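Question thread 4412

I'm putting together a teaching handout and wanted feedback from people who do this every day. The idea is simple: show students a protein as raw sequence, then show them the structure tokens that encode its fold, then repeat with a second protein so they can compare. Below is the first pair exactly as I plan to print it.
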Amino acid sequence: MYLIAEIGINHNGDLAIAQQLIDAAADAGFDAVKFQKRAVDVVYSAEFLDSPRESPWGTTQREQKEGLEFDSSDYRQVDAYCKEVGIAWSASAWDMKSVEFIRGFDVPFNKVASAMLGHIPLLQEVASEAKKTFLSTGMATLVEIDQAVEIFREADCPIELMHCNSTYPMREEEANLRCIPMLRERYGCDVGYSGHESSLLKVCAAAVAIGATSLERHITLDRAMYGSDQAASLSANALRSFVEAVRKIPVIMGTGEKEITPAELAVREKLRVDVHG
């Protein structure tokens, strides 16, 4: 099972916070950390960027959006730091310019966010790399997922779908985890789960039990920090127990074959009563 710690923009534009989150994820045993990359002037209109928004960086949407973005120098430091602590990293690109930007770092996998599943040119560009790609399926119809999967298969690009509900935080009763085996059967590929619930373990544990092959969860230093994703994130101090629990679930689930274990056999020899009429 592949575990991705989604830092996203929870670093709040601060490289020191990002490094603390990388440390926490690596120490807990995650396989990778993931960021989000946007070219602000491409993703948002000038009118939107000029509109008011109070934030730690100023009073406009532009100041807030630009305050949350890492530049090339920041990502070079992220790349070096992840290599130093021994954890993989990637970033979901929200525009074509950002696809090219992330490509420059030769990350081990790509990630397409749910919001980008309908951006056909972006899907085609990502698929052209033929690099393992995780596709989140939040807010998407099966017809839309069909189209995305076809693009990647035509490009002979390996994919793993991620079942997702794109609300922050997600209510547990809206998780609809039975979509995981449905998607696996429909598309004949691995299916993971990208979660935005506020609870620590319940939904992810159920997802693994029903067959999820990967998990992605947002992480934060403090769920009370500034930012729209913080409340739907796992706190850094809870990551180790989360990883230990979800990695144990496949062992707990077992093989499904009924057999007497060696430990059980010793008990049987002491307690079993066999009476034949």
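The second pair follows. I'd like the answer to focus on this one:
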Amino acid sequence: MSKQDASRREFLARAAVGAGAVAGAGVAPDALAQNHEQDTAQPHSKGDAHGAFLNHDHAATIAAFTERLMPGAPGKPGALDAGVLNYIDLALAGAYADLQDFYRRGLAQLDQYCRKSYRSPFAQLAAARQDEVIAALEAGKATGFTWPTAQEFFSTVRTHTMEGMFADPVYGGNKEFAGWRLVGFPGAQAIFTPSDMQSKQAFTRVPITGLQAQAKKA
């Protein structure tokens, strides 16, 4: 993993902890949880599931984009491992339905920019090129964007990537608590011992229980 990848991962992980572990149970709207419960009847593979809202091409772009924002590494899950694509897909089909046109237009402008600049859509670019594109979006230097602006699109996808990494798994992301384990967030536990409370080490004891597990017992 490159230094840039490591720096990006570290930034998002620190941001999640600083926000009270975006992690916590209540980051995403309850409607997302309901959407996910309905969706569980259709098993998903790895972290690349889609189809609630995103078509194949849009899903490929979001998967590639979010993985560059939160790249995986040996022993360290990335956006694909955590099911961020599934989270965003379910969100856009439900609680974030008001952002559907925002995403459609943003993705179309993104691919137009990439085709004009590199003669290929974003999803087909090499990782280094994808990083260049993302940097241009963040800096507002990517041309051809009207609404959303390049910076608005970048900021929204980054926010949703963080939510998909660190929100309770009931919302469709944070698969197998990948994001929580990454930042040492314990989730809901039956009891914390005095030594747990005093420890400054990452919490690793299992099981880690989230709203998803609670919903299954209900």
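Top answer:
Good format. For the second protein you could add a caption like this: Confidence is low (pLDDT under 50) at residues 35-47. Residues 3-183 form one domain.
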